[in-house]
Structure formats: structure tokens, C-alpha cells
Amino acid sequence: MPIFNEHTPVNPQGRLAGKVAFITGAGSVGDGWGNGRATALRFAQEGAVVWGVDINQEALPNTADLIARAGGLFHAGYCNVMEAPSVAASILECQQKLGRIDILVNNVGGSAKGGPVDMDESVWDTQIDYNLKSVFLTCKHVLPIMQAQQGGSIVNIASTSGTRWTGAAQIAYASSKAGVIHFSKVLAVQYAHDNIRVNTVIPGQLHTPMVSVRLAAQRADGDVDALLKQRQARIPMPFMGDGRDTANAALFFASDESRFVTGADLVVDGGMTARCA
């Protein structure tokens, strides 16, 4: 079956029919299939009502347009996931307007180059807030809602950088994403009796807009093709995945198909980490 795209219509009886999904980082830094944009569209195609937030409001209209053309339902909102008042207000607004939150996807994240010697302390602090504290804050405010509903699914997006060396020194990113993976496992056990499942998608080196817009400038002096060749050389499969592959993995964890799965990791990397095991 071909992977989904912008022409895949909404299925009103889909795998997420009747569910409300709160997705952070639902925009994209550029054209193409970012994790947030792809997940928002995929969930809408499967019948969910999507509440998508981003710190950059200009990044959301494209996501909204894709979902509208597919026949889905999308609400765009502002949220700075590093600030508790912003997170609390955004989650409360979603609950008040849509009545519930069944699914939380923590998609926000980004890397900064450097090891502990050359990385400025302020960069370290921001990376921890951006990649890890953001997950803490959203869970802090969503979990009571899910407890009251007697169930829910939280999907956290980590990175293979949180499990091993993946080709570049990015100590804060690697550490914070490793934290996301273990945070998810601890939370999964704590809230299992509340029928709240917590799982982690671990993408590898995908071809997302962030590669072209940000990473190429950091690591290949702006040469996108050179960076893509470097990344592809690490992947056993003959192609590089994109945000749609992350979205499909998140969909499994969000849906009732994974009703007996919690505290689990799903690696989406074309075999890269298996080769390096």
C-alpha cells in the first residue's frame, strides 16, 4: 500500500475516529514532510480532530490547508512549550473547546552542535528546556485530563541520537532525547492503572525540512546535497524516510491497535542503529 500523501482523504470511521489529538510542533520550518505536519495530517485522515500548536504561527496555515483539503478537522493554536503558562493555557483552551484530549503527541525538538567544552552553558540549558522540559510540561497538564477521562495515549518523539552516537557531536540534544525515552518508560508504568499509555517513536536520520533549513548550515556549510549523502550513507535501506514514517509510527501508538502496548519504543531509521548495534 503506498504511503499516505496530501491526496489521501479523511476516513470518518478511521483508526482515530472520535478522538481529539493535541500535537505540538504541528507546523514545519519549510516545505516537505516534517514530523509535526505529517502527524497532524495523518491523524486527521484517520478521523481525529487535531489541535495543532506551534510557537511559529506562520508555520501552521500550510498544515491547516492540507487537512482542510483532505476533509479533516484542525484547530491551530499558539504555544511556547518551554513556558509553563503557555502550555497550561493552550491545553486548557483545547479541553474547553473540544471537550477532551485523548492523544498527546510531543513532537517539538531540535539539535545544537557541540560537546561540553565548546557548547555555551546557555545553549545547553535551552536544549534541555526545548527537548525535555517541554515534554514534562505538556504531560503535567494533560495527565489530569486523561485521568478524568479514564484513559489516553501519549506519544513522545525522541531520536536515535538519544540511544547512540549518530555522526555529530550534539551533547545536549542527545542527552535530552535520551531523557525523553526514559521519561516515557517511567510515566508509562506510573499511569498504567489509569489506562493511560505512554510510548516513544525514535526516528533516525530522515529527510525533513529541518535538514535543509537548519542542519545543512550547521554541519555541511549549507550544502544540502552533501549532508543528505552523508546521512544516506549511514542507512542500510536504499532511501531516506521522512516525516510520514514518523507519523505512521505515532498513529499505531495513538490508536487502539496498540491498546496493550505501553513503555515501548519504535525505532524508525531504516536499519541504521541495527547496523551500529
TrEMBL record:
One of its GO terms (molecular function) is oxidoreductase activity, acting on the CH-OH group of donors, NAD or NADP as acceptor. InterPro entries: NAD(P)-bd_dom_sf (IPR036291), SDR_fam (IPR002347). Belongs to the short-chain dehydrogenases/reductases (SDR) family. This is SDR family oxidoreductase. The lineage of its organism: Bacteria, Pseudomonadati, Pseudomonadota, Betaproteobacteria, Burkholderiales.
